[in-house]
Structures are given as C-alpha cells and as structure tokens.
Amino acid sequence: MFVSLKNKIDDFVDELMNHSDECDFIEDLNYLRMRIHEISPFSDPVDCVSWVKSKYVHANDYNPNRVAPPEMKLLEISIKQDGYTQPIVVFKESEKKYIVVDGFHRNRIGKESVEIRKRIYDRLPVVVIDKNMNDRIASTIRHNRARGVHAIEPMSVVVEKLYFMGWSDKRICEQLGMEKDELLRLKQFTGLGSLFASRDFSKSWI
C-alpha cells in the first residue's frame, strides 16, 4: 500500500511540475500543503507555511517594535544569504488580505529588497493564526518580548569562536550587525589579548 501511495504522490508531483502557469503551480503547492496539514498530527501554525502574494500581506497598526537601520540591513543580509527561515505570522482577514501579527520587518524586506522579491516570486511565507484583535495584539507583544536580547557572555564566546575560525573584525561586524565599539567591548570581556591582534579596525581604536 505504501509503495502504491508513494507512486501516486510521485505521479502527482510530476504533473504539478508540468504546469506552464507559474501562479497556478504555486497555488497548487499551497493547496497541497493545506490538505496535508488537515491530516497532520501537528496543529501548530508552522506545520503549514503558504506562499502568499506580497500585495495581500499588510502591516498591523499597533506594533510598538522598531528596528534601527543597521538591524534592518542585517535582516536583509540574513534573508539574502540564508533565505526565509521564519515565516510571517498573519491573521487571514480574507482571501486577499492578511494582517501581520509577527514579522513586520520580514514583511518589509520581502517587499523592499528587489533581489529577494525577485527570488521569491513576489510572495511571502506566512502561517495563519485565527484570533480576535485583542489576542492578536497580545501575540505580537509576546513575540517581540520573547526574543529578548543577546547576553554579553554568550556573544563574547561567539566572537571568540569566529575570530579563531579566521573571521576578521570587519566580517564579524558586517555579518552580526555590530558596531566596532560593541565588538571591542565583547573582545575585552573575553580577556584574551590575542583577540586584539586584528588589523582591520585597530587604527580607529588608537
């Protein structure tokens, strides 16, 4: 029975891949994921990620979270290099309107970065939660606060590891979204003099 089902799935996938219309193909994949989710033992939203047209995804008007330009740039770099590793959490108001609960900035990057927008066919990965407005606001705040901040000690360990892996100060700052002063403080925290042997930023710190 399993072999027969597997063959049917393979035939179905082959048929999908022969679609000439890109939009229909993506919608068929979304439908397939939804049907699998219906029989899945996992009810969590992340079990069903759909790729929705970006014009249908709208920011909420209550999120107090703000991200500074350096962090936004880092988010763009992250999505460019790693792809979307976290979907955008939304409330589905209608077939053509999804309101962001969490992922406001992932939503922005997907719309504003030409390179990313082209790569993902002008779509955004979303998971849906069905909650009233009050509960959605609470969910947004929980998502924001649950992220917390990076503690100094663990981050200094990360910097130390990257340094001994051959990363330069410049690369560490660019890839982790750090300022030179922040990197210096983390180096000082380790107490290892070898971390100050970098040539990239040493002149600016004299």
Summarize the structure.
With 206 residues, the protein is of the alpha/beta class.
Describe the protein's architecture and organization.
With 206 residues, this protein is of the alpha/beta class. It folds into 3 domains: 1-39, no CATH class; 45-147, Alpha-Beta Complex (Conserved hypothetical protein from pyrococcus furiosus pfu- 392566-001, ParB domain), CATH 3.90.1530.10; 152-205, no CATH class. The chain has 9 helices and 5 strands; from the N terminus they run H-H-E-E-H-E-E-H-H-E-H-H-H-H. Strands 1-5-3-4-2 form a 5-stranded mixed β-sheet. Residues 201-206 have low confidence and may be disordered.
Output the keywords.
single chain, 206 residues, alpha/beta, Conserved hypothetical protein from pyrococcus furiosus pfu- 392566-001, ParB domain, 3 domains, 9 helices, 5 strands, 12% strand, disordered C terminus
Question: What's the arrangement of secondary structure elements?
Answer:
Blueprint: H1 2-17, H2 22-39, E1 50-53, E2 57-58, H3 69-82, E3 88-94, E4 97-102, H4 104-112, H5 114-119, E5 123-128, H6 133-147, H7 152-164, H8 169-176, H9 180-190
Parallel strand pairs: 2-4, 3-5
Antiparallel strand pairs: 1-5, 3-4
